[in-house]
Write a structure and sequence with these properties.
- This protein folds into three domains: 7-120, Butyryl-Coa Dehydrogenase, subunit A, domain 1 (Orthogonal Bundle); 122-231, Butyryl-CoA Dehydrogenase, subunit A, domain 2; 249-387, Butyryl-CoA Dehydrogenase, subunit A, domain 3, CATH 1.20.140.
- 49% of the residues lie in helices and 16% in strands.
- It has helices spanning 7-34, 39-48, 66-79, 81-101, 104-116, 231-265, 279-308, 313-338, 349-356, 366-377; strands at 121-124, 140-144, 147-158, 165-171, 181-187, 193-197, 209-220, 224-225, 269-270, 273-274, 382-383, 386-387.
- The strands form four sheets. Strands 1-4-5-8 form a four-stranded mixed β-sheet. A four-stranded antiparallel β-sheet has the order 2-3-7-6, with helices on one face. A two-stranded antiparallel ribbon has the order 9-10.
- It is globular, with a radius of gyration of 21 Å.
- The two termini are 31 Å apart.
């Protein structure tokens, strides 16, 4: 792996950092406090073309590589986790999934509109009874002539209420288990499709999270992504990309904690000197910096493999696990460094603390990541990307 970033990668990171500092940082706390999805910010992101970073130019994207995408994602989450959620879902879970599995007609139709923000996507995998057990899909797809009728419920779906299109996973034959699952591109304006926002979240308060309800939603067979029965495989490949952007975003949160704490530690004084001169504060900051550097190397290793077209499920899981845990450690210590002020939303570390928790949960819990890593270390065999006899082990709730 080349440890030198290209001029293009550095330029995109700089551009994203400047955008986030200028447009998002001044309103992030208020939007979080108001639990408001900021359409003005979303439209500015669309106008910049950020959503199409790793999508080829011929489909309306920027044609950048995964290293640039990771660096950009980190910069987004350094300022606002809720904004990163929109960025990740649209790009990692939806656009890149269509890019890999779609027909040429599907790619030409959907991707330019996804990259421009004309279409907004969501990823409909998680259900009330299918989180980590993602193969246990209850949503049904019944063939009706040249169409399919979809009925069921999805939950914890990021961007669910603002999406124009949803990737919906449904089973065409429950007796086939995970081999009966199929992925459909569903227009959210379709009759029988409704979304209900989920309120009262611990974190990600200025992102949209919703439940989806489908009652005999008619979907033409041309909207099947991949082939009938390939839905579980498609879902897992999407999670590989989703986990990558979660890992990069988690490093951004750690970096945000480092930035906030190093600044505050040299301003705040106790016992006649800046708290940054106290060894226990220094120890917490040192741990943050070490975690930040280690996490960045882990997600960049996964990015390098993605650029080479090499299978990277394990490396991505390692990055997702470590970076999510690192973000929680950093946010915990950041609140501790700020003391009583860290318990107030006057400073951003309180928001970082709340936002960090979901990094251990969505797109595969930390327990699922440990299962993947341990099974590889123990030599448990995989078949088609799935542990033999255990089709749910690579799954995980994906918001």
């Amino acid at each position: 792996m080349d440890f030198d970033f290209s001029p293009e990668q550095l330029a995109m990171r700089k551009h994203m950092r400047e955008f986030m500092e200028r447009e998002v940082a001044p309103v992030a706390a208020k939007n979080d406090r108001d639990c408001k999805f900021d359409w003005d910010i979303a439209k500015k992101i669309f106008a910049e073309g950020f959503l199409g970073c790793p999508v080829p130019e011929k489909y309306g994207g920027l044609g950048m590589d995964y290293i640039a995408y990771g660096l950009m994602t980190e910069e987004v989450n350094r300022v606002c986790s809720s904004t990163r959620t929109l960025f990740s879902v649209q790009t990692s879970l939806v656009a890149l999934t269509i890019l890999k599995w779609g027909t040429e007609e599907q790619k030409k139709y959907y991707l330019p509109k996804m990259c421009s923000g004309e279409f907004i996507g969501c990823y409909g995998l998680t259900e009330p009874e299918a989180g980590s057990d993602a193969a246990n899909q209850q949503t049904k797809a019944v063939k009706d002539g040249n169409d399919y009728l979809l009925s069921g419920q999805k939950t914890w779906i990021s961007c669910g209420s603002i999406a124009t299109h949803a990737l919906v996973f449904a089973t065409v034959d429950k007796s086939l288990g995970h081999k009966g699952i199929t992925c459909f591109i569903v227009d959210t304006k379709s009759k029988g499709f409704t979304a209900a926002p989920i309120k009262g979240k611990l974190g990600l308060r200025s992102s949209d999270t919703s439940s989806l309800f489908l009652e005999d939603v008619r979907v033409p067979k041309e909207n099947i992504l991949g082939n009938v029965g390939e839905g579980f495989k498609i879902a897992m490949s999407a999670l590989d990309n989703g986990r990558f952007s979660v890992a990069a975003g988690a490093v951004g949160l750690v970096q945000g904690c480092v930035d906030a704490c190093t600044r505050y530690a040299m301003e705040r004084k106790t016992f006649g000197k800046p708290i940054g001169e106290h060894q226990q504060v220094q120890a917490m900051i040192a741990d943050m910096v070490a975690d930040c550097e280690a996490g960045r190397l882990l997600y960049l290793r996964a990015a390098d493999l993605k650029n080479k077209g090499v299978r990277n499920s394990l490396e991505t899981s390692i990055a997702k696990l470590f970076c999510g845990e690192a973000a929680n450690r950093a946010a915990h210590n950041a609140v501790q460094i700020y003391g009583g002020y860290g318990y107030s939303d006057e400073y951003p570390v309180e928001r970082y603390f709340r936002d960090a928790k979901v990094l251990n949960i969505y797109e595969g819990t930390r327990e699922i990541q440990r299962l993947i890593i341990a099974q590889d270390a123990l030599g448990i065999r995989y078949a088609n990307g799935t542990p033999t006899g255990r089709p749910t082990a690579l799954a995980g709730a994906a918001v």
